[in-house]
Amino acid sequence: MDPALLREREAFKKKALATPSIEKKKRDDSQFKDESKKSKSKSSSSVNAQPKIDATNYKTMTGSSSYRFGVLARIVRHMRARHQDGDDHPLTLDEVLDETNQLDVGNKVKQWLQTEALQNNPKIECTPDGKYIFKAVYKIKDKKSLLRLLKQHDLKGLGGILLEDVQESLPHCERALKHLAQEILYITRPTDKKKILFYNDKTAKLDVDEEFVKLWRATAVDAMDDAKIEEYLEKQGIKSMQDHGPRKPIAPKRKKASQKRRQFKKPRDNEHLADVLETYEDNTLTQKGVSIK
């Protein structure tokens, strides 16, 4: 072999050994493949362990709280509709589930309805024999009881009654309200636009002159408070608002303490023995100069 080539080869080896180099190791993918296979097997086993949801068993599953409250809401709506139609006889739980087409609920849901949900629901009343009935806001059955309730609210100063509460409590409400059209006043509340029923007390009606009504309606006091109205009336020489409105509490006057000196009175006990002197040394009593042993 040519000695020149051998020298170049030796020089190349020395240069290669002198320069540092980093080797890249090959990645062993066998471990990652095993781990991915294990995770896939676990996920598949967990999916297979969970019960499948289909059309036959989705109603019997008790894990979902939304399903429970859906059953309860359906029962409450049905009981309200029964009450508004005039059916006021109580029902057992099985009868309620039968009428609402929910006989396929699970036993856990039934137990929850019977022991907790229906017992604590404000719209359902439980009778002593274990049956259920709708619990209305007011116990009124006909137009006479409604009129009596409105009169009691008017006499006691309790105000009006919400129309939606009457519609919920009174069976065949629209028919009764139509018969009592002359006995009831409807006022719409400006805050939420709900209608409120008041008793139309015809004895409190007054005949007001039309000119006064026109002046009353033409006067705008929306942007004025009570202080401005009172100031305006005082300028006009009217003082009728002095006795109206909240009164300021008047602090009671404190009584000044009397500066007289107290005179201590002497005790009046045994005044009849004032002139009797008793000595305990020799057991003698002295009265008016006479001593007695």
Question: How does this model look, in words?
Answer:
Residues 1-59, 236-275 are annotated as: Disordered. Its main location: nucleus. Tetramer of two alpha and two beta chains. This protein is mainly alpha-helical and 293 residues long. Among the domains are: 64-134, Arc Repressor Mutant, subunit A, CATH 1.10.10; 143-199. The protein is 42% helix and 10% strand. The protein contains ten helices and eight strands. The protein has helices at residues 3-18, 30-49, 65-84, 93-99, 107-120, 143-156, 163-169, 173-179, 210-218, 226-235; strands at 124-126, 132-134, 161-162, 184-188, 195-199, 276-279, 284-287, 290-292. The strands form three sheets. The chain has a three-stranded antiparallel sheet with strand order 3-5-4. A three-stranded antiparallel sheet has the order 6-7-8, with no helix packed on it. The longest helix has 20 residues, at 30-49. It is extended, with a radius of gyration of 49 Å. 8% of the residues are buried. Residues 46-63 have low confidence and may be disordered.
